[in-house]
Amino acid sequence: MKTLLMSALMLSTAMLGAAPAFAAATLPADTIKNIVLVHGAFVDESSWDGVAAILAAKGYTVTAVKNPLTSLADDVAATEAVLDAQNGPVVLVGHSWGGVVIGEAGDNAKVKALVYVSAFAPEKGESVSALAASGPATPGTAAIRPDSKGYLTIDPAVFPGAVAGDLPKAVGEHLAAHQMPINHTAFDAPATVAAWHDKPSWYVLSTKDLVLDPHAQEFFAGRINAKVTKVDGSHASLASHAAEVAAVIEAAAGAN
Asked: How much is the pLDDT for 120?
């Protein structure tokens, strides 16, 4: 999966006018050099490969968390373990469901900035399930299906168009067939921390998102007083617009 996805990510980066790799550079002394990336539901940490490659080649130390997707507490614990291993301050980044996770783990003293990419940004006491129920279902959320054990995936027939409509069709189909199920209890768990109250935040808003409605993204970004960058992308904009997402993370790190 990683080989196919990485090829698509590098292609999309090149199409944006940026080279798929950068010569290693020395970052300014006041730049936050540690970047921790938290993936969303239904995918794994390889969804960040394009962004990670851009940032690592520029001299950042980049770590992608492998969320177990078994519960909110388990995903937060996995992220906390990565944060604790960092040497110095961190920019913490979350995509989609990962926004819930970074809102909790972002309370860690090492975290100096938060970046949300097409992500939920709940207030304390809010859950993904409750937030999703407050508005009409999107094509992506309407296609979520539980298995016999309560783990959720998106209908593979719907996944490519709804989640990854601006990635090559073969990539979307491969991701659909190799989804990482998430326990439904994760979506039902209320947030206990909202780190965005105390940490500066950035938000990448995907205007063609068919999973997390762009109007909901506007609401989250406004509520957390984030610096907003809009990209003309799908829910998979972290892959299809990797260069733009990486630039926002660099801004949060203080390099731009």
From this structure: 98
Predicted local confidence at residue 255, as pLDDT: 58
Of 208, 210, 2, 187, nearest in space to 99 by CA: 187
Q: Which pair of structure tokens corresponds to residue 191?
A: 């947030």
Residues 143-186: tens digit of each pLDDT: 999 999 999 999 999 999 999 999 999 999 999 999 999 999 99
Longest distance between any two alpha carbons in the chain, whole Å: 52
pTM recorded for the entire structure: 0.91
Contact (Cβ atoms closer than 8 angstroms) between residue 44 and residue 66: yes
Of 163, 187, 177, nearest to 238 by C-alpha is 163
24 confidence band (pLDDT: 50, 70, 90): low
- CA-to-CA distance for 165 and 55, rounded, in angstroms? 25
Q: Which residue has the tokens 């067939």?
A: 177
What the block records as the tokens of 107 is: 């309370």
- The DSSP H or E segment spanning 229 is strand 227-231
Nearest to 245, CA basis, from 116, 138, 106, 149:
116
- DSSP letters along 26-43, please? PPPTTS--EEEEE--TBS
The answer to whether 121 and 102 are in contact (CB under 8 A) is no
Residue 26, pLDDT score: 82
Q: 72-84 and 98-105 are packed helices; what angle lies between their axes, rounded to 10 degrees? A: 60
Strands 144-146 and 151-154: antiparallel
Q: What is the sign, positive or negative, of the torsion defined by CA atoms of 128, 225, 233, 94?
A: negative
The single residue listed with the structure tokens 């969303």 is 40
Q: Tokens 């962004």 — which residue?
A: 51
The CA distance from 135 to 147, in Å, is 24
* Distance separating alpha carbons of residues 120 and 122, to the nearest angstrom: 6
